[in-house]
Amino acid sequence: MLFRIFLFLFLPLFGLNAKGENLNIYSWSEYFSQEILEEFEKETGIKVHLDTYTNNQEMYANVRLIYEHNYDLIMPSTYFILPLREKGLIQKIDKTKIPNFKNISQNFLGQFYDVYNQYSIPFLFRIMGLAYNEKTLNGIHIHSWRDLWRDEFKGKVAIIKDYQKMLQVSLVSLGYSRNTKEEEKITKAFEELLILAKNANFIDFSKINNEDLISFFDGNNAIATMWINDVKAIQKYNKNIHFIIPKEGGMIWMDSFALTANAKNIENAYKFINFTLRPDISVKIANNIKFNTTLKYDLIKQNLNLDNYQNIVFMSDDELNHFEFEVDIGQNLLIYIKYWDELKRIFN
């Protein structure tokens, strides 16, 4: 039993090598393909050792646990920047070592969890909004998250099978912040989500492909909460499928680079960040995993043929002004966890 615990806790460390021209990255499992890592190594001579995680909680726990060994770079989401900083697990970033920092759109910089981007470098983001089948709607106009609750759509709605994200959708649909700390509002959003979920189908994006989504909209289904990139991927097969950012604002999630407090290969980490902030590299990474790049739209348009990147949705600065980032809510997280667990109990 002790041996199993040892393996669970320290297996991510095996293979790390802090000597020579190396870089140790702890990242989301899908972010960096072997092709990207080999291209970086070919250009710089730096060997990347990559370990991966599947959620922020796993990353946070391991970074705290193996603090004395440490990775050089990690990829936290917005709401984990402050906890990492407060625990002293990440260090200030010298942006003069990252010339391509200038390529990042102002829409992603200066967020209140890191006003001067001293601890985080925005990299990739995803947007969730509403997808709808124009043919099935028969002239009904969609413009709000509240449209998911309309009586005429009962049985024709699909929602993402992620209770954390859907509770945030419910909050925003009621005019509340997705990051509210008021239990009364969270409770109301939970009650509304229960009503919606009982009349909706769930989409588990980890288990479906484009063909499944096409089949979903070829049937009697009318409206769904979906990632904008997935909608783009199926629009070429069904021109009746459209995507909107609801009037209350879309849901955005963003991941950033952060430099660990005990990083051993700091200069190499700066080189890697700078490498990934080049338009050709950033767009290639985003396109591979159906995410979006934080780089300036005009810069990308000037340097690349956008038609070659079918899995990315390029948004102008004006379009990106209508989103609220997810942030750390401290001890109030326990309120959310209570309702997430209740939703799992009811619907799983």
From TrEMBL:
Keywords assigned by UniProt, alphabetized: Periplasm, Signal, Transport
Gene Ontology terms: cellular component: periplasmic space
Binding, spermidine: E30, Y79
Principal location class: periplasm
Record keyword Ribonucleoprotein present: no
One term of GO molecular function: polyamine binding
Alphabetized InterPro entries for the sequence: SBP, Sperm_putr-bd
GO biological process: polyamine transport
Subcellular location: Periplasm
Protein name, per record: Permidine/putrescine ABC transporter,periplasmic spermidine/putrescine-binding protein
